[in-house]
Amino acid sequence: MKPNGNGKAKESLIRKVVIRDEDGHLVEVKNLTLYADLLTAMHQNGIKALQTNVVQLPLPDNGQLAVVKAVLKTGIGVFTGLGDASPQSVEAELVPHLIRVAETRAKARALRDALGVGVVAVEELTDGASLEALTKSEAAKESPQQSAPADPSKEFVPMTDKQRQMLFRQLAKKGIEGEAAKQHLLTAFGVNDLRKVSRKAASDYIDKLMKENGQGQGNGSHAEASHA
Amino acid sequence: MPDYLSVSQITLYLNCSLHYYFRYIEEREPERHFAALAFGKAIHSALASFHESLKDGKPLPVEEFQRLFRADWAAETTEPLYYANSDTPESLLELGQTLLAEYAQVCRFEVVEAEHRFEVPLCDPDTGEVLCDKPLVGIYDLVTPEGIVEFKTAKSVPDAGQLARHLQLSAYAYAFSFKERRMPTLMFVHLLKLKKPRVEMTAVVRENKHLQFFTRCALAVARGIEANIFAPNPGWGCANCEYARVCGEWP
Fold first, then answer.
1. Has residue A222 been placed in a domain?
2. Beta bridge partner(s), residue A74
3. Which domain range does residue A28 map to?
4. Quick check: A130 pLDDT over 90?
5. Is residue A221 included in any domain, yes or no?
6. pTM of whole model > 0.70?
7. 20 to 30 A Cα–Cα from A224, which one of A162, B25, B198, B223?
8. What letter does residue A34 receive in the DSSP assignment?
9. Is A199 a member of any domain?
10. Are residues A199 and A94 part of one domain?
């Protein structure tokens, strides 16, 4: 067992993120967290169910405001979160997906409460600015004149041992075990070695399997929503 | 360098401080993954789920308990593992299921917490003086109303002398008594990997002198790490070391 200090574990969920305006100019560097990281951390801590319900559909007479409630059941209690999304609070390409954005925001809030993470998730931001995560050292060096750092979503972070275990457990619930489970995962992820599966892809697939196994009946697919 | 001390860090440093250096300071990838360790991990995670089910008042049926282990073992064996003796993935799968079925039959624990993380300062047990700026962190396998239960997969149960000096149990007694202001009962559960697998439970007693000894050990380890003192400890453990190659090239 390799425990993490609480502070250390929380710290690993917080990223320095560059906020740029529409012209690509650096506006500020913020401490933020990512939905995918929160979900992974929660899977590692033990998640019993993560359910969502649409509280309000986006309609013309309510300003196209979608509201979703998330209920997260963990070993230490039940946490809820409300998320909303409207054409004013999302980027243009996400306007057709307001419910999914609201769902992700609701889940992010519930996850943050459960994990004790005070900083806001990138997915909850409503300013439409482009976001780029930085390492601490990069953030310290960052200046408006410098070129933009790499997009973290393109960085490969392998899935954790806990995620791998969770995948096999979820498949076992469906009656897929042993070598068949391994082959299933290799095919599902399109890899020849499970060490090539990213943390985010694992997180999405765990969510999918949990839904199929009746552990978290979301209204939208997490795999899709997490891209919001 | 970790900003905390854990029981496994302390025992590893004392067994071989160079091994500690490779794992915790360099954070070096192991050269080999040992099946025995992977087996222990799969057993522990299945046990944790079993104990959680007891805590929730909905005990897992044995078949479900075994299925969890099969899934956890399958997850462990996706990595290439180094098998000692005549062990194979199949033989360990069989062994694990047998041991867990046996344990489910004899388990009578009232579960307060399973896989419960603790974090306490390292203080002198008598005076309360903080000895080290790093906290002691660890995970109890099982917490009962009376104390702590620790699980091990092994070929044999340590003898009375080894149990009396077992640092992990002293560390747990220290952490528990720090939080609860009372000495816990301590139980070792050994899941024995024998031809005829069996589960043995051994009660272990700890007194204040054990806590004193543990804190002195922890402090010595913390000072050794701070001072960058890392040296190999050639011995029987080298045969199953995950850093045998790089150690051979040391310094």
1. no
2. A47, A77
3. 11-140
4. no
5. no
6. no
7. A162
8. -
9. yes
10. no
Average pLDDT value for residue range A187-203: 92
Per-residue exposure over B10-21, b if at least 16 CB sit within 10 Å of its own CB, e if not: bbbbbebbbbbb
Q: Which of A46, A161, A172 sits opposite B67 (nearest CB)?
A: A172
Over chain A, what is the mean pLDDT? 74
Number of domains in chain A: 2
Choose the final residue of a domain: A111, A140, A169.
A140
- Token digits for B136? 């002691």
DSSP letters of chain B? --SSEEHHHHHHHHH-HHHHIIIIIS-PPPS--BHHHHHHHHHHHHHHHHHHHHHTT-PPPHHHHHHHHHHHHHHHTTS--B--TT--HHHHHHHHHHHHHHHHHH--PPPSEEEEEEEE--B-TTT--B--SSPEEEEEEEE-SSEEEEEEEESS---HHHHHH-HHHHHHHHHHHHHHSSPPEEEEEEEE-SSS-EEEEEEE---HHHHHHHHHHHHHHHHHHHTT------SGGGGG-TTHHHHHT--
Q: Are residues A79 and A113 in the same domain?
A: yes
Report the residue of chain B nearest A195, measured CA to CA: B79
In this structure, the answer to whether residues A20 and A120 fall within a common structural domain is: yes
Q: Are A63 and A94 contained in the same domain?
A: yes
Contact (Cβ atoms closer than 8 angstroms) between residue B197 and residue B43: no
- For residues A37 and A135, membership in a common domain is answered with yes
Residue B187 · residue B203 · CB < 8 Å: yes
Residues A73 and A171 in one domain: no
Cα–Cα distance, A155 to A164 (Å, whole number): 19
Closest-approach residue (CA) in chain A for B3: A5
Do A91 and A179 lie in one domain? The reply is: no
Q: A24 and A94, same structural domain?
A: yes
Chain A nearest-CA distance from B153, in A, is 14
Q: What residues of chain B lie within 8 A of the CB of A177, using their CB?
A: 67, 70-71, 74
Signed CA dihedral, B161, B165, B167, B173: sign only? positive
**Res B73 pLDDT > 60:** yes
Average pLDDT over residues A142-152: 41
The verdict on residue A224 lying in a domain is: no
B197 has a pLDDT exceeding 80? yes
| A83: nearest Cα among A52, A40, A42 | A52
Contact A177 B119 (CB under 8 A): no
Cβ-nearest to A168 among B44, B75, B117: B75
